[in-house]
């Protein structure tokens, strides 16, 4: 899988049995990006502009149980993303439960961050925050589409927890990663998610997206992820 940050390296996996755990070393991180996705700037220009709707009625539960196994691989979504984005990954009890690894580097801060299960040094960020999505279209969706968004690898990224807490539910107009070298890829990811799920943007948000991407007009649009509707077992009765 290609790296969201623009790398072309293919993941190389080495599996070792160490003290009852499995260690995996990968060279990939972030959602898949391909030339077929087209230019991110062009996609940003095509997004629908509307005002931000009220946050009334928003709750995390509106997007289903956290980290649901929507791809039916028997691993929860959080561990899937940790396995994808971390290096020197170690597991316990098989190849689902990630117990440790290294975020090298963290895309938001540019620093290396060590992950240890049960601590809060690494978050799985919704690139398009769920509350932001709620105010820009998701409020009106069927629950299965909200569950899909919350668990779509295209919208998920392992990042430094402390940096991510500063983002909150900000959009491109209100928050960008401190790591300036990652901003083009970050904004392209937001554009990709909003385009895929037909979410709208505010005028200020669209202007901010275009400003960032005009500095990298060849930035490709990330592609892939899961279908925009969760499997039938997640549908409301």
Structure description:
- Strand 3 (about 85-90) and strand 4 form a beta hairpin.
- The chain is built from seven helices and seven strands, in the order E-E-H-H-E-E-E-E-H-H-E-H-H-H.
- It is about 25% helix and about 15% strand.
- A five-stranded antiparallel sheet has the order 1-2-3-4-5, covered by helices on one side. A two-stranded antiparallel sheet has the order 6-7.
- The chain is α+β, with helices and mostly antiparallel strands and about 240 residues long.
- It is globular, with a radius of gyration of 17 Å.
- It has helices at about 40-45, 75-85, 130-135, 145-150, 160-165, 185-195, 205-215, and strands at about 15-20, 20-25, 85-90, 95-105, 115, 120-125, 155-160.
- Mean pLDDT is about 85; it is low at about 1-20.
- The protein has one domain (about 15-235).
Structure characteristics:
237 residues; alpha+beta; five-stranded antiparallel β-sheet; two-stranded antiparallel sheet; disordered N terminus
Structural class: alpha+beta
Number of helices: 7
Q: Which regions contain 5 or more consecutive residues with pLDDT less than 50?
A: 1-22
Shape: globular
Helix content: 25-40%
Rounded mean pLDDT is 87
Provide the domain count: 1
Rg to the nearest angstrom? 17 Å
Main β-sheet description? 5 strands, antiparallel
Write the element-wise H/E pattern from the N-terminal end onward: EEHHEEEEHHEHHH
Distance between the termini: 36 Å
How many strand segments?
Answer: 7
Beta strand %: 15-25%
Kindly report the spatial arrangement of strands forming the biggest sheet. 1-2-3-4-5
């Amino acid at each position: 899988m290609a790296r969201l940050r623009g790398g072309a390296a293919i993941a190389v996996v080495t599996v070792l049995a160490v003290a009852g755990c499995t260690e995996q070393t990968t060279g990939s991180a972030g959602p898949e990006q391909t030339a077929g996705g087209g230019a991110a700037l062009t996609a940003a220009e095509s997004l629908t502009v509307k005002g931000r709707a009220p946050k009334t009625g928003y709750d995390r539960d509106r997007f289903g149980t956290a980290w649901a196994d929507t791809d039916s691989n028997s691993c929860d979504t959080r561990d899937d993303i940790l396995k994808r984005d971390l290096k020197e990954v170690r597991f316990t009890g098989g190849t689902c439960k990630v117990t440790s690894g290294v975020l090298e580097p963290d895309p938001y801060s540019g620093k290396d961050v060590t992950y240890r299960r049960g601590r809060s040094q690494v978050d799985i960020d919704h690139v398009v925050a769920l509350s932001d999505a709620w105010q820009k279209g998701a409020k009106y969706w069927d629950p299965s589409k909200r569950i899909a968004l919350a668990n779509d690898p295209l919208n998920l990224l392992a990042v430094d927890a402390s940096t991510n807490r500063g983002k909150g539910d900000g959009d491109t107009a209100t928050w960008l990663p401190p790591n300036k070298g990652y901003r083009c890829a970050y904004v392209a990811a937001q554009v990709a998610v909003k385009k895929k799920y037909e979410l709208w943007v505010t005028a200020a948000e669209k202007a901010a997206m275009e400003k960032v991407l005009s500095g990298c007009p060849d930035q490709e649009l990330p592609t892939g992820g899961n279908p925009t509707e969760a499997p039938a077992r997640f549908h409301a009765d």
